[in-house]
Amino acid sequence: MDNEKPIVDFGAIRDVLGKDFEPVQVLDGQAKVIKPEIVSKYSNEQLVEFFKLMLWERTLHQRSNALTRQGRLGFYAPTEGQEASEMGSNAAMKKTDVLMPAYRDIPQLIQHGLPVYKAFLWSRGHVLGNEYPEDFHAMPPQIIIGAQYVQAAGVALGIKKNGTEDKVAYTYTGDGGTSQGDFYEGMNFAGAFEAPAVFIVQNNGYAISVPRRKQTAAKTLAQKAVAAGIPSVQVDGMDFLAVYEVTKAAREYAAAGNGPVMIETLTYRFGPHTNAGDDPKRYRTKDEEQPWFDNDPLIRYRKYLTDQGVWSEDQENEYVEQVKEDIKAAVKQADEAPKQKMTEFLGNVFEEQPQNIQQQITEFQAKESK
Ligand SMILES: Cc1ncc(C[n+]2csc(CCOP(=O)(O)OP(=O)(O)O)c2C)c(N)n1
Ligand SMILES: [Mg+2]
Q: Which residues are annotated as catalytic?
């Protein structure tokens, strides 16, 4: 009796889940074209424009890093390594789509239309950093892990109920975020209401110091969408064209009224979690990091473009200088913003002030009028 096979082989079921998720790739790690039919859709000029997006993000990262160390910015979550994942997905969206970002998604927010100086003011905790232009469709970056997934589900349902055509809500979280209740609730809700949401998970390997393998027993993060009835995919997150093409397809699917989609991008955070002081050396080894550094999304794409003879070091230097100038001007603009008053800061939290906040506002009003 003991040797009888059980009615269900649970171990086999667990192993099978996740096998359906083969990461999509267009250019491999050696810049070899895996899917020529995708690359040939784009002119050399377009391919160069895509590269510039990543180069812009890398330069923004380098400047933001330096500015934080000089005490000229406040909160900063490094984005180095995630350029293909962030710029590839964002480039597939339309300006009329609604973006619900997290703290590491500032580059997407800026490309979606937020002026750079406003992003800097947000980093400094200035209220003006959260004051958005009327025609800018986004929410301020979420710090509460996973909360933006719930917001995205609601916004997507709103889009559907308003009957707005060709519009989606899109949002990002990290590998760690997929352990949050909000992550599941948001996806489940959007799935049930067939709301046009594109859920993106940037799997950068870590939730601060917790590695992906300790985060969840799921074989892939993409398969977490299955239970919500949502189609999902894994994509090489170091491959701009793969991320772009997959997100474009996901957006089209959702915008056509088919319901939400989830994308897991396989990427890596090159630097620390934030500039607040964690040291990756304490939770990662050089042996683990090096292959990822070699897999830099810019190296791969740059090699492809230079092999094609459409990109040079001079072009790169010239472009980077121009981006640095733009950033310098944005820092100046942020510096010129009026000093924030405590009353403005407090008044920005709720639409109608609860009694305890009102009390504090009254207190600070008295101080500020002196
Ligand atoms: C609800 C909640 N719990 C905990 C935190 C503290 N916290 C901030 S970032 C972070 C890790 C998130 O990791 P991941 O989702 O992988 O995103 P990444 O930072 O790697 O982009 C945690 C636990 C928080 N901000 N919100
Ligand atoms: Mg992470």
A: 269, 273, 283
> Does 104 sit in the ligand 1 pocket, CB within 6 Å?
yes
Same domain, 187 and 201: yes
Whether residue 358 is contained in a domain is answered as yes
Number of domains forming the structure of the chain: 2
Closest Cα partner for 234 from 20, 16, 21, 18? Answer: 21
Residue 26's CATH number: 3.40.50.970
Mutate to test the pocket of ligand 1, among 208, 224, 270 (most ligand atoms within 8 A of CB): 208
Residues 250 and 350 in one domain: no
> Which ligand has its closest atom nearest to the C-alpha of 178?
1
Q: Are residues 48 and 158 in the same domain?
A: yes
Q: Residue 276 CA: which ligand is closest?
A: 1
Show the domain range for 197.
14-338
SS3 201: strand
| pTM of the complete model | 0.96
Long-range CB contact pairs, 278-286, < 8 A, 24+: 278/208, 278/209, 282/209, 283/206, 283/209, 283/211, 284/206
Let me know whether 362 and 265 are in one domain: no
Q: Is 52 in the pocket of ligand 1 (CB under 6 A)?
A: no
Compute the mean pLDDT over every residue in the chain, rounded to the nearest whole number. 96
- Supply the angle between the helices 240-253 and 44-69 in degrees, to the nearest 10: 100
Query: What are the tens digits of pLDDT across the range 66-81?
Result: 999 999 999 999 999 9
Does residue 148 form part of some domain? yes
Whether the CB of 58 sits within 6 Å of ligand 1: no
The residue contributing the CA closest to ligand 1 atom 20 is: 207
Q: Is 173 in the pocket of ligand 1 (CB under 6 A)?
A: yes
pLDDT tens digits for range 136-171: 999 999 999 999 999 999 999 999 999 999 999 999
Task: Give yes or no for a contact between 39 and 33, defined as CB atoms under 8 angstroms apart.
Answer: yes
What pLDDT does 348 receive?
A: 85
Q: What is the pLDDT of residues 245-273, one digit of tens each?
A: 999 999 999 999 999 999 999 999 999 99
